[in-house]
Specification:
Elements: H1 9-31, H2 36-58, H3 63-77, H4 81-88
Helix pairs in contact: 1-2, 1-4, 2-3, 3-4
């Protein structure tokens, strides 16, 4: 469980907000191929860079988090919504991520 008194908690919450936006875009892409291009653009040009900045500013520039985000970016660049979703699931449980799963 997330300790709300921990100094990093607000940053974990911000990561969760961004991850939720990515989740919504990926789900829309999976449901409708016409949503692919705008979803991919927003994820690659806005949301992943926001998570990278959060990592740099508040998570010690974790190489593990950068690798997870890099894998997500590479998957989103592809044309397969299923592979992009699979890469996204690395953010959704214990592992090399922001710990948002603990909320």
């Amino acid at each position: 469980m997330l300790d709300l008194d921990h100094p990093r908690s607000r940053h974990v919450m911000e990561a969760a907000r961004i991850e939720d936006l990515i989740r919504r875009l990926l789900l829309a892409w999976r449901e409708d191929a016409a949503a692919a291009s705008p979803a991919r653009t927003q994820i690659l040009q806005t949301l992943i860079p926001q998570l990278e900045a959060l990592n740099a500013a508040h998570f010690g520039s974790s190489k593990k988090i950068y690798r997870t985000l890099d894998a997500l970016g590479r998957a989103v660049q592809g044309a397969d919504a299923g592979k992009a979703w699979q890469a996204f699931t690395a953010l959704d449980g214990p592992g090399d991520n922001f710990g948002t799963w603990a909320i």
